[in-house]
Every structure is written in structure tokens, then in C-alpha cells.
Amino acid sequence: MLRNSLVILLAMVNVLVLMSSSSVFADEKYSFGPPELPADVPKPITLHVRTEPPLSVDEILRRSHGKIFHAKVGTTVQLRVEAEYEDGSRRDVTQTLYTFYHSTDSGSTLLKQTGEVSFVRPEKLPFPSLKEKKLDIALITIAYGRNIIAEIGVNIVP
Questions:
Q1: pTM to 2 decimal places
Q2: What is the CATH number of the domain that holds 115?
Q3: How many whole angstroms separate alpha carbon 150 and alpha carbon 158?
Q4: Cis omega (within 30 of 0) on the bond before 35?
Q5: Does pLDDT of 50 surpass 80?
Q6: Domain count of the chain?
């Protein structure tokens, strides 16, 4: 039952992220989000995200849903974002004009555009069945320009 509820939650989060990614990052009519990378700025092939201090990976959720981090309520971390380029080189893009951070769950995360994120417990979780199981998963999307996107999931526990 817990696994089914979690699968449904993650599917809903992914749909929301896809919807917000297409509207927040890809559509020029919106005034928020990162600006498009200029032609003279090299475009990376991928982004790598880590946390300082490092968060542990939730092994139970990892088996069924890939890499989801585990954080206790009250934890604050700094996200570090590196862009990787075709030649294999990497560059820190944590705080640039072109880097933008977004969380699907602003009630569980306090996210700054510097990459600092604090995990808090909201008064009410969106699904009553999840409140009983103490599951609160936030998906954080990091964009560099409008088309280079990375995501991390964090299970926030008491």
C-alpha cells in the first residue's frame, strides 16, 4: 500500500514538474526563470548536482524510484551545480545569471536562488494517507539556461 501511494505521488510530482518545466523554463513570455544562454556561452551536455554537507540516499526509495535523498526536518544544505561539457570539462554554475532553482513543494522547502535549501515540515501534507506514513517528497529542479535541466528528489522526515 505504501509503495502504491509513493508511486502515485512520484507520478503526480513528475507530471507537475514536466508542466512547470515547459512553462517556467521554455516559454519566453514568462518573466521568471533563467534567461536563455547567449550564443557565445558554451552549452553544457548535462548538470551534476551534489549537496554540502552531503545528504544520504534513501535506500528504500532508491530500489523502486532511483536516487532520492533523505533529509531531516530542519536540515539546511547548499546545492552545488556543475555543468559538464562535450570535451569532459566541468565548471561550477551554482550561482550564475543563468542558473535557476525551483521546488515543486514550497511548503516543505525554503529554496533560495543561491542554491541554499532548508527542509521544513508543512502543517498539512497534500494527501492525508501520506501524512500518516510521514512521507513528504520534494522535487527540486535546477535549470542552467532554459534547456539544461537537472532534478533531485528529497524525502523529508521528522
A1: 0.71
A2: 2.60.40.1080
A3: 26
A4: no
A5: yes
A6: 1
Backbone angles phi, psi at 41, to 5 degrees: -95, 125
Dist. CA 9–CA 61, nearest whole Å: 12
- Residue from 8, 21, 13 nearest 141 by CA: 21
Do strands 90-92 and 148-157 pair parallel, antiparallel, or not at all (unpaired)? unpaired
| Domain extent at residue 81 | 2-157
The 10s digit of each residue's pLDDT in 110-143 is 999 999 999 986 555 554 444 445 567 788 989 9
Residue pair 69/51 in contact by the 8 Å Cβ criterion: yes
**Lowest mean pLDDT across 19-28, 56-65, 68-77, 131-140:** 19-28
What is the number of other CB atoms lying within 10 angstroms of the CB of residue 48? 12
- Whether the Cβ atoms of residue 78 and residue 52 lie closer than 8 Å to each other: yes
Q: How much is the pLDDT for 21? A: 41
Kind and range of the H or E run holding 46:
strand 46-52
Residues 6+ away with beta carbon under 8 Å from 134: 157, 158
DSSP state of 49: E
Is there a contact between 83 and 91 (Cβ–Cβ < 8 Å)? Answer: yes
